Amino acid sequence: MSAPQDAPAAAPATPQPLHGAQLALGTFALSLATFMNVLDSSIANVSLPAISGDLGVSPNQGIWVITSFAVANAISVPLTGWLTQRIGTVRLFTSSVLLFVLASWLCGLAPSIELLILFRVIQGAVAGPMIPLSQTLLLQSYPKAKAGMALAVWSMTVLVAPVMGPLLGGWITDNISWPWIFYINVPVGLFAAGLTWSIYRDRESATRKLPIDVVGLSLLVIWVGALQIMLDKGRELDWFHSGEIIALAVVSAITFVVFVIWELTEEHPVVDLTLFKRRNFWTGTLSMSVGYGLFFGNVVMLPLWLQLYMGYTATAAGWVLAPVGVLAILCMPFVGKSVATVDARLLATVSFVVFALVMWMRSWFNTEADIETILVPTVIQGIGTAFFFVPLVSLTLSGLSPERIPAATGLSNFVRITAGAFGTSVTTTLWDSRTALHHAQLTERIADGTGVAAADAFAKMHALGLSSEQVAAYVNQLIDRQAAMLGANDIFAGSALLFLLMIGLVWLARPTAHGAAADASAAH
Question: Which residue spans within 164-207 are E strands per DSSP?
Fold first, then answer.
């Protein structure tokens, strides 16, 4: 078998690191493009009611505006390594940004939900290589000693954008109109693409004409598409009580197994699965993906709880999450410098411990929690955020040769993105389940007549002139609120435990002599 990681016959000399203004502008251009990409994965969430109403469809149909982007993006991300070998790193990245701009413009112009979904599919598909290749180009731009800083810059764009997406999307929808959540990509993307091309066009990677693995690509589209749709629709259709969800799960599982077998035996596979033979790659990828799934699931649940049960507006709930970036920004330079000299496993352990502490603090929330109580763990979470991506990405890429970096970043990002979708679905489903359980338990305690306080409260409400129906409705509302809080507490406590258990996982990786980030950079 001739794996795609074999070096091209006429590989150009390894590009030297950038310096001065070129380094600053190159970093800014790549970060801007990445920020725009990640922002678009969440910016439409709060705009769905406006989009659905304007295009005359139901909210359930409108959800495909998000799902279509996620499915197409998940499919295209792992193709990054294969596409890079055919097209070249710089050309592929710049083309992806320009096509993303075009698709965004078409999304804003879409006159119907069908065309909007089509353009979102195109937007998600062309966006796939942008995030992995931004990592590749950033590592290539920095000297070996500053590779950690390159990863630190990249991490900030990936972590801040999902928080900013709902805030920016809500403001644009309320104050301008929903098409502008797509139109804003046009000037940003054109600027980022132009600046990237002007700086990196003479630093193109070697290319070679590889045959198209049609079977592998088809299997990838089927199993990833089925899995993503299952995750997106599962909660709505009550998971495996639905024949549609069962069918999607079966299709995804079977085609996944066939895909793995095919890719491991194909001479020119579209996805280089042999990367998982490297201990640091699979431990780093798995640690980052599980951690990201836990992180993202809780990021989704917390604002939902605040809006549905604590009386927060969408904007206010978004602002409660915003301070996570404060300590992250302050700590990131330290992490970026430390990863070249400190064991990446130790730095990742700091992240997991901080995340566990944050989740444990949240597990003690109650329905009387004020904004200060809610903000404290959010601010502390910034420390865990700073220590999360940089060590784990550097650990994942450690020791890889230059031509394998795009494939490695594409595959690891694919697993991370899929884990984020999986984490969101599992978290919200478990929250619903635990809430229902607590609701039943609280109702039972009141119904059995043993609660003296409850009986006294009922008597007082009747004395105020409320009917039995009004009292029952009011009490049920209180139970709903308390049950949701207890359900969320369970999720927070479980997440804290899982973060602690992940410490053992990351220590399965091999240590690197001078920091994994430096090793990854040296590969360039």
Answer: none
Point out the residues of the chain with pLDDT beneath 70.
Answer: 1-14, 42, 45-46, 48, 58-63, 67, 159, 162-163, 166, 314-315, 318, 447-468, 470-472, 512-524
> In degrees, to the nearest 5, what angle opens at C-alpha 70 toward C-alphas 68 and 71?
65
Please write the tens of the pLDDT for every residue from 84-136: 888 888 899 999 999 999 999 999 998 888 898 899 989 988 998 888 888 88
Taking CB atoms within 8 Å and a gap of at least 24, the contacts of 49-56 are 50/173, 50/177, 50/178, 51/116, 51/178, 52/113, 54/178, 55/110, 55/112, 55/113, 55/116, 56/113
Say what angle helices 405-447 and 80-87 make with each other, to 10 degrees: 160
Name the phi and psi angles at 5, rounded to 5.
-80, -5
Residue 29 to residue 97: CA distance in whole angstroms = 11
For residue 68, CA distances in Å to 33, 206, 413, 414 come to 21, 33, 18, 16
Q: What is the C-alpha to C-alpha distance for residues 92 and 75, in angstroms, rounded to an integer?
A: 16
3 state DSSP class of 523 = coil
**Tokens (6 digits) for 306:** 């605040």
| Helix pair 324-338, 389-397: axis angle to 10 deg | 40
Q: Are 317 and 306 in contact (CB under 8 A)?
A: yes
pTM here? 0.77
Residue matched to tokens 């993503």:
228
Residue 502 CA: distances (Å) to CA of 24, 96, 169, 485: 35, 35, 34, 26
- Helix axes of 113-127 and 89-109: crossing angle, nearest 10 degrees: 170
Closest to 126 measured CA to CA, from 154, 103, 158 = 103
Characterize 66-76 residue by residue with b for buried, 16 or more Cβ atoms within 10 angstroms of its Cβ, and e for exposed. Answer: bbbbbbbbbbb
For residue 244, what is the DSSP state? H
Half-sphere exposure (Cβ direction) of 220: Cα atoms closer than 13 Å: 22
Q: Which two tokens stand for residue 130?
A: 């942008």
Question: What residue has token string 């198209």?
Answer: 212
Q: Which H or E run contains 177?
A: none
Supply the DSSP string of 280-343, one letter for each residue: HHHHHHHHHHHHHHHHHHHHHHHHHHHHHHS---HHHHHHHHTTHHHHHHHHHHHHHHHTTTS-
Q: What is the 3-state secondary structure (H, E, C) of 64-127?
A: HHHHHHHHHHHHHHHHHHHHHHHHCHHHHHHHHHHHHHHHHHHHHHCCCHHHHHHHHHHHHHHH
